[in-house]
Amino acid sequence: MTADDPDEKPGATYASPPCFMHEVEGLAEPTNPADPVLWADVRRWRKAKRERLIAARLEISADRRAEMSARIAEGIDAAIGSPAGKTVSLYWPFRGEPDLRGWMASLVARGGRPALPVVIEKGQPLVFRAYRPGDRLEKGVWNIPIPADGEEVIPDVVIAPVVGVDPGNYRLGYGGGFFDRTLAALPRKPLVIGVGYEMQRIPTIYPQPHDIPMSLIVTEAAGPA
Ligand SMILES: Nc1nc2c(c(=O)[nH]1)N(C=O)[C@@H](CNc1ccc(C(=O)N[C@@H](CCC(=O)O)C(=O)O)cc1)CN2
Ligand SMILES: Nc1ncnc2c1ncn2[C@@H]1O[C@H](COP(=O)(O)OP(=O)(O)OP(=O)(O)O)[C@@H](O)[C@H]1O
Question: Which of 75, 102, 164, 165 has CB 3.0 to 4.6 Å from 223, enough for a Cys bridge?
């Protein structure tokens, strides 16, 4: 492995990696939150991994992304069955995420209740607002469109777009910690479906104590796993 290896592990960019880093790889237990040095390494590694994964995702053609989004929508249907009466949080796609807005319309047609996540404040949990295609949107944090008027709801199902995902169903997101913080704070845990492309699967995100695994993952290749 060289310092340029895209799969380098945390610390690998140093001439002398911190001596404990070899213990991280393959570690089944969450690492120690009280160890700030280790977390600093993981955070640095995640930032670099995130950037590479987002760049790779944006290189996929829009047509191919649309095809994969359609397969993912089928996989979600297979996973949740009838959505009638269920509140399902989706997301407004950005940075090449699967576009499930067509599926959102079919959700409404089948009696489901879509919602979108809203960042109220950095460092705080997300809230979810009811949203149906055509409802008024406004610009939220990072310019992500959010429902302007929707009532606040608690979702039964949360569809979470991943930047990366590992075999333990741990999600690498954009680095705000929003989904983890939100799941930790919700009164009842929803079914959390991570969605992404096969190319976003990675061997580990180096899960930390704050990382909450998703219930299942749906990609273009396979249904629920
Ligand atoms: N489409 C979509 N909407 C979503 C999410 C998502 O993952 N996808 N979210 C899921 O959580 C929330 C937004 N989360 C975000 C978290 C961080 C950044 C962001 O730009 N972060 C900085 C770095 C932050 C840091 O490292 O401290 C950046 O990339 O420059 C953007 C959105 C709610 N809405
Ligand atoms: N339940 C929580 N309580 C307090 N802080 C948290 C919680 N969950 C995550 N965080 C903090 O959020 C920050 C970012 O976490 P992480 O790298 O896991 O983000 P992410 O999952 O990639 O981002 P996102 O969910 O926004 O897409 C970390 O500093 C972490 O400590």
Answer: 75
Whole-complex ipTM:
0.92
Which ligand sits nearest to residue 159's alpha carbon? 1
Total domains, the chain? 1
Q: What's the gap in Å between 119 CA and the centre of ligand 2?
A: 13
* Closest ligand, as measured to the CA of 147: 1
Across-strand partners of 195? 161, 218
Buried-exposed string 40-79: b where 16+ CB fall within 10 A, e elsewhere: ebbeebbeebbeebbeebeeeeeeebeebbbbbbebbbeb
Q: Tell me the whole-structure pTM to 2 decimals.
A: 0.87
CATH number at residue 88: 3.40.50.10420
Domain span including residue 52 = 36-218
Residue 64 phi/psi, 5-degree rounding, is -65, -40
Query: 31 lies in a domain?
Result: no
